[in-house]
Design goal:
Helix 1 packs antiparallel against helix 2, helix 3 packs antiparallel against helix 4 and helix 6 runs antiparallel to helix 7. Helices cover about 20% and strands about 45% of the residues. A 14-stranded antiparallel barrel has the order 2-5-6-7-8-9-10-11-12-13-14-15-16-17. The protein has a three-stranded mixed β-sheet with strand order 1-4-3, with no helix packed on it. It is an alpha+beta fold. It folds into two domains: about 300 residues, monomeric porin ompg (Porin, Beta Barrel), CATH 2.40.160; about 120 residues, Serine Threonine Protein Phosphatase 5, Tetratricopeptide repeat.
Length: about 475
C-alpha cells in the first residue's frame, strides 16, 4: 500500500516550500552616443594634409580651425603635429585642439585641466568656456558644469549657442531630479512552487506518495516593480546616492505564492564619463504568501568601467544578513555575493556579454547552507524592421554544506536557464514599449524526487522610466 508523505516531516528542509534568495548580478550598461564629440560631420569637407603646410602657417591655422568648426576631430592630431612645427604657432589654439583630442580619447581630466588653464588666462574666451562646460557635463561633474553654463548665459550669446546652453542646463537639472522606473507584466507560471514532477519521494526503499500541494502548481498573475533614485552632487564627480527598489508577484489564482520585496539604499557614488563606483548600505524586507517573511541589511558595492570604447567591465559584491520569522528562523543567514560581467559592443545596435556569479549562503541550519557558481552569456541585437531581441543563457552549480537530514546525502544541483525577450522599437503607447519574454529554468538535482524540476514562464511587460 502506498503511503502519503507527511509534509511536516520536511519543514523547513524542503527548499521549494520557501522562496529562492534573489541577488542582482552586475549589469552592464550599453554604450551611449557621445553628446559632444563625434569623429566626423556627415556633410563636411575632407581636408587634405601635406607636409607643405609647415611652410604655410596661416593656412595651417585656418585648416585647424576649420577642422574644429566642422567637427572633423579625427584630423586634429595630424594638424596639431604640423602646426606645432610652424613659426610662432598660437599656443592657445594648440591647447584648444589638444583638449578636444584628449576628450575624444576619454581623458576628460587632462582636457578639463588644460581648458581651465586657458580660461584662467583668457576668461572671456567663450568657445573654450563652452567646451569646458561640455566636458564637465560629459564627466558627470554636474555642479561645475552648471556654473560654467551660467557664466556663459550672463555673457549674451548668439541665439543658437544660447539655445544649446539652455538645453545643457535642463539636462543637468534632470540628472538631479528624482528618477522613476516602473513596470507591470502579465505572468503565466507552469511551476510556481519549483516542485519536482515525480509523484513519489523515496526514503530508503520506502516510497511515499506526494500530496497534490507538493506537485508542480500553475499560476497566473502580475509581476510589477517601482524603483526610484536620486543623486546629490556633492563635489566634482562625487555624489550622495539614494535608491529604493520594490518588486513583487501577485497570482489571482494562487495567492499563497505572492511575493514582494523592498530594498532601500543610501550611500556614496563616484561617476565620470568612463567609470562608476558605488558603496551602498541597504535595508530590505520581504513578504511571501501575504505574510512577513524576512528582513535583512548589508552593504553592496558596484564598479563599472569602460576599458575601451567597446569593452566594459561591471562588477558587484554584497555582504549581508537575513533574519526570518517563525518556523523559518533556521534559514537565518549571512550571504556573500560576487559578480562580474564583461560586455563587448560591436556597435550601437549589437552587443555580447558574459559573466560569472558566486553566492555563499551561510544559514543557521547548516544543511540549508550552500555555495552557488553561475556562468552566463547574453546577446542583444537591433534587427531590421524595428525588431529588437535579447537572449541570455546561464548554467550553474549549487552544492550544500551538509547532508540532508532525511536522505543523508549532500544535495548537489545543476541549473540551466534561458531568457528570451522580443519587442518592436516603433510600437509604443504613451512612451511605453511592450515586450514579450519567455523564461525557461531547469534544475537537475541528485535528490531527484524533491529538487529536480523545470519551469516555463511567459510574460508580457510594460515598462517606463522618467
Amino acid at each position: 500500500m502506498k503511503k502519503y508523505l507527511p509534509l511536516t516531516l520536511f519543514i523547513p528542509l524542503v527548499a521549494n516550500a520557501t522562496p529562492e534568495l534573489e541577488i542582482k548580478s552586475a549589469e552592464p550598461t550599453l554604450p551611449k552616443q557621445a553628446v559632444i564629440f563625434s569623429e566626423k560631420s556627415a556633410n563636411s569637407e575632407e581636408v587634405t594634409l601635406t607636409k607643405e603646410l609647415i611652410s604655410k602657417p596661416e593656412l595651417t591655422r585656418q585648416m585647424l580651425n576649420r577642422a574644429i568648426d566642422s567637427r572633423q576631430f579625427h584630423l586634429l592630431p595630424e594638424l596639431v603635429r604640423i602646426y606645432q612645427q610652424t613659426p610662432n604657432p598660437d599656443l592657445v589654439l594648440i591647447d584648444y585642439a589638444n583638449g578636444i583630442i584628449l576628450a575624444s580619447q576619454g581623458d576628460y581630466k587632462t582636457a578639463i585641466d588644460l581648458y581651465r588653464g586657458i580660461i584662467a588666462k583668457h576668461p572671456n574666451f567663450q568657445p573654450v568656456r563652452f567646451r569646458l562646460a561640455q566636458m564637465l557635463f560629459e564627466d558627470r561633474q554636474n555642479e561645475a558644469a552648471l556654473a560654467q553654463f551660467r557664466k556663459l548665459q550672463a555673457d549674451g550669446l548668439p541665439p543658437q549657442i544660447a539655445n544649446g546652453v539652455e538645453q545643457y542646463i535642463a539636462a543637468i537639472q534632470k540628472r538631479s531630479d528624482w528618477s522613476f522606473d516602473f513596470g507591470i507584466n502579465y505572468l503565466h507560471e507552469s511551476n510556481v512552487n519549483n516542485a519536482s514532477s515525480s509523484p513519489y519521494v523515496r526514503v530508503g526503499n520506502v516510497p511515499f506518495k506526494k500530496t497534490e500541494e507538493s506537485l508542480p502548481q500553475s499560476a497566473n498573475g502580475l509581476s510589477y516593480h517601482l524603483n526610484l533614485a536620486k543623486n546629490w552632487n556633492v563635489s566634482g564627480s562625487h555624489y550622495l546616492h539614494f535608491e529604493n527598489q520594490f518588486s513583487g508577484k501577485s497570482y489571482w489564482d494562487n495567492h499563497q505564492f505572492d511575493d514582494q520585496q523592498n530594498r532601500s539604499s543610501l550611500g556614496y557614488q563616484y561617476q565620470n564619463a568612463q567609470s562608476r563606483l558605488a558603496f551602498l548600505p541597504y535595508y530590505e524586507m520581504r513578504w511571501y504568501g501575504n505574510h512577513r517573511y524576512n528582513h535583512g541589511y548589508g552593504v553592496r558595492g558596484e564598479v563599472e568601467h569602460w576599458l575601451t570604447s567597446q569593452w566594459q567591465l561591471s562588477t558587484a559584491g554584497e555582504m549581508g544578513k537575513l533574519k526570518h520569522r517563525g518556523e523559518n528562523q533556521l534559514a537565518d543567514s549571512t550571504t556573500l555575493f560576487g559578480s562580474a560581467t564583461l560586455l563587448y559592443a560591436f556597435d550601437a545596435k549589437s552587443y555580447l556579454y558574459g559573466g560569472v556569479d558566486l553566492l555563499r549562503d551561510r544559514t543557521l541550519e547548516r544543511s540549508l547552507a550552500s555555495k552557488r557558481y553561475t556562468g552566463r552569456i547574453g546577446w542583444g541585437q537591433e534587427w531590421w524592421g524595428g525588431i529588437s531581441s535579447r537572449i541570455q543563457l546561464s548554467y550553474g552549480k549549487r552544492e550544500f554544506d551538509q547532508a540532508h537530514r532525511i536522505f543523508n546525502q549532500i544535495r548537489k544541483d545543476r541549473e540551466l536557464g534561458l531568457n528570451v525577450t522580443l519587442w518592436h522599437r516603433n510600437l509604443h503607447f504613451w512612451g511605453i514599449t511592450p515586450k514579450i519574454s519567455y523564461q525557461y529554468q531547469r534544475v537537475n538535482s541528485n535528490l531527484v524526487d524533491l529538487y529536480s524540476y523545470k519551469r516555463n514562464r511567459v510574460y508580457l511587460s510594460f515598462e517606463k522610466s522618467f
